[in-house]
Amino acid sequence: MGKRSVMKYLRPWMIIGGLVCGLISGGTAQAENERASLVRTIKLEPCPERKVAAVVSGIAIHPSGEFCVAAADDHSIRVLDVESGEQTARLGKHSDWVRAVVFSADGKMMASGGHDQKFVLWDVEEGIQFRLSGDIPYAIHTLQFAPQGDMLAVGGFGPRITLIDPRTGQKIQELDAPDEDIRTIAFSPDGRMLAAAGRSGEIRLWNPETGSHLRDIKAHRQRIHSLSFSPDGKQLISGSDDRMVHVYGVEKGETIANMPSRPAKVMAVSTLDQHLLASGGSDNVVRLWDLRNFEEVSQLKGHNGSVSAVACQGSTIISSGFDTTVRIWRLNPVVEDAFPATFPTSRFAD
Questions:
Q1: Cis ω before 263 (30° cut-off from 0)
Q2: The whole model's pTM is what?
Q3: CB distance 40 to 32 below 8 Å
Q4: Which of 46, 171, 183, 302 is the most buried if burial means most Cβ atoms within 10 Å?
Q5: In 3D, which of 168, 203, 213, 209 has the Cα closest to residue 183?
């Protein structure tokens, strides 16, 4: 599915404030150690009904690599063309801060959730069209599709993780969460494990098919903001307010590595491939980590506010946060050779 087919079918009643209201600039900054380059900075302008620009709390890249979506505190979701940087639409079905947005693995569905206690499901195959919505009895902070696309896990400021059938919007089951402030959910690549974490610093693991509790990992001393499985599913990575990135073995829950991110609180983590991780922090920096020796290898600088959202695909990294910009980075060729991508290469790859 190409960009034209996506935008062709966008319905006027879903688009608020018109098209292309973002200010776009080319990338000129060079990352430390030249591991990656800034391709483009997209400045999110205030919408007509607001006087301040939007803070972005979630980023998702469509599996095609052609466009991404940004969840924001102005109650909307922006659709951004990755190649041109143009904001092509703004979608509105929420009445409060949209905290999270995610695509299904096949790219046919999108889900969003926010402080209005609502999850919204969208059809993407022939354009981003509203499909259905449902209510959860707590503000939603995170959601994630199972790799098979048959389940949507939803969490937030409540005591349970809710599993939803995305075809019908009906609840499948509920899982007892480790606390009532869940900030992040992740499925393993094979879909056989679900992880969630939040304020307590504890990671809880389940079998999502049976709902059985597998184990808890006493991970961090402070709130965990983000989780990411390695592509082979053998490791689980977490980022926390305690300024650490931790790596665990999934089978036994043992700690493999502790990587300090000082002075930054870690607000987002996302794997590019089996060997490379990106993290976003409160010091306005995107860090790259080598997961073979568990060392920081580069810092991507340019944001002027905390980096609260990071998404990766192939050689492309997209970051955003409190400075109301979305920044698109590309790994330099030497890094791509050193860290061969295991995900489909995006359109930014030469």
A1: yes
A2: 0.88
A3: no
A4: 183
A5: 203
Q: Is 157 helix (H, G, I), strand (E, B) or coil?
A: coil
| For residues 248-277, average pLDDT | 96
- The 3-state DSSP class for residue 243 equals coil
From 44-58, 127-141, 184-198, 253-267, the region with the lowest mean pLDDT: 44-58
Among candidate residues 102, 104, 48, 50, the one with its CA nearest the CA of residue 73: 50
Say if CB 38 and CB 28 are below 8 A apart. yes
Give the C-alpha separation, 9 to 14, whole Å.
11
The confidence score (pLDDT) of residue 46 equals: 83
Site of tokens 């990766």: 312
Q: What is the DSSP letter of 45?
A: P
User: What distance in Å separates the CA atoms of residue 335 and residue 350, rounded to the nearest whole number?
Assistant: 13
Residue 331: name the closest of 36, 16, 22 by CA: 36
Residues 6+ apart with CB under 8 A from 18: none
Say whether 89 sits in a helix, a strand or coil.
strand
236: nearest Cα among 260, 222, 252, 214: 252
Going by C-alpha positions, the residue among 248, 289, 282 that lies closest to residue 266 is 282
Three-state SS across 284-322? CEEEEEECCCCEEEEEEECCCCCEEEEEEECCEEEEEEC
- Map residue 334 onto helix, strand or coil: helix
310 vs 297: CA distance, rounded Å:
17
Sign for the CA dihedral angle at 131, 136, 142, 147 comes to: negative
Q: Are 193 and 228 in contact (CB under 8 A)?
A: no
- Answer whether 320's CB lies under 8 Å from 313's CB: no
What are 193-239's pLDDT values in tens digits?
A: 999 999 999 999 999 999 999 999 999 999 999 999 999 999 999 99
